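Appendix B: complex inputs.
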Amino acid sequence: MTTQRPPAGSSGAVDAPDGPVLDVRGLSVRFRMRDGRDVAAVTDVTFSLRPGECLALIGESGCGKSVLASALLGLLPGNARTTGHARLGELDLLAADERTLARTVRGRLIGLVPQSPAAHLTPVRTVRSQLHETVRALTGIRKPGLRAAGEAAAERAAFPAGHLDRHPHELSGGLAQRAATALALVGDAPLLLADEPTTGLDRALVDRTADELRRHADAGHALLMITHDLAAAQRIADRVAVMYAGRVVELAEATAFFGAEGPRHPYARGLLDALPERAFTPIPGMPPELGDLPPGCAFAARCPKATAVCGTVPDPVDGVACHHAEETARA
Amino acid sequence: MLELSRITAGYERRAPVVRDVSLTVAPGEAVGLLGPSGCGKSTLARVAALLHRPYSGTVVVDGRAAHGWRHRAPREQRTAFGVVFQQPRLSADPRMRLADLIAEPLRATGRRDEAAARVDELAGRVGLSAELLRRRPHEVSDGQLQRACLARALVLRPRWLICDEMTAMLDASTTAALVAVVEDYRAESGAGLLTVGHDSVLLDRWCDRTARWEDLASGAG
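Resulting structure:
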């Protein structure tokens, strides 16, 4: 399967002073399976992200969100093939070798806020010891200054200094989240990548975690938040990218998307209508298998608006990849 | 009626997470139990489902007091409950195909011959295709696995459903779909529901009444 190029000119130049931190163009990821099948995990994804901006990438589980994150970090398994570009400044993340990724990208250019912080931290070491290791590796600060630098790093993520000598299992979910965020912030990376940062947390903690991530974006980081939590996305995102079956089907301003205007793609509309504060009705059916996608629009089988034209893959027009976007917007 | 009175339970006798809590669910009633993480609400749900033995207090199921918990509960009481947990990955045997996972309670109670028909019927309800039923847990998504876990909870036609954060890991559409399956089952069977969660919007929408953990602890409810 070849990738289609989106029409050029939808976002700014890469090297402009206020240009994007991250510029992803036509990114596709294919997994070659043992039986020779290809799994189309990510297809032709294009977006850019500026300093101080938060983009929320939303969609059902299994739609390719986390594969996209792994592709940006160079953490895909060996059977994956990528095409397209993902430029972080001068560097194309997809073309970079492991040495470059390990020495200049992870932690330094991209800070990862992980999905389950308690599992991400080393269970047998204290938070302080893990912070010290990260500070030493990323900034080169050595012993007399290390303790202060570690405490300053904890402070930035609002991690209380009194808990620094605790082990991960002695932390609540919220504190473990902050410890992991503190580690992600040490390298002062221009891009923060948060992969489902609020899964399994209760509402109050979701709000606090999201607000803290927003604060880091406001401090000048670009923030890519991958989530299925629409409330968290609504709370902090500037723009929303909706992913379905590996493709970004809608890219919109958050205020319009969650506001009166609403989503323009029928899938995105269905996702919002499923919320308990809205209609609370599910989208019928389930997402298609990424290894066995239909030839046309992947959502057609579940879509109330599907017609014969949905037998072809819709090109994104004005941020929406749907043959019936206009009708949906008017509905 | 499902009556929990003055339950004290936990994992350390000197520091029980549930202290002197009472809660009643009427037949056909849907009760939401709302509380922050770590407050002990899941422990109370496990006590209600006869899966965790409390230090003190009584559980009365349909007029009969429970004396045994887990495998010591009499089958007639144990099978009155269907339970769905938060994390489908941890509640599914990784070696079983989804069809076997759903049929397991029937096999365990000696009703193997009903299995094929029941699994077909429930798979239709929860939206699992014949192809998905042949897969093992690692070959399906969290949402698909939770659908199977819900089908397993319904396979014995329980009079009581206990859902412990059933939808916490799921996206909005799958959440709405699974809640609709639970409500359809309750509408035709008259089963009562105790659902535990931290999303007040969801519980208020789903349940007849929502009990707040901090109000229960005082002994009311």
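Residues 203-218 of chain A form the longest helix (16 residues).
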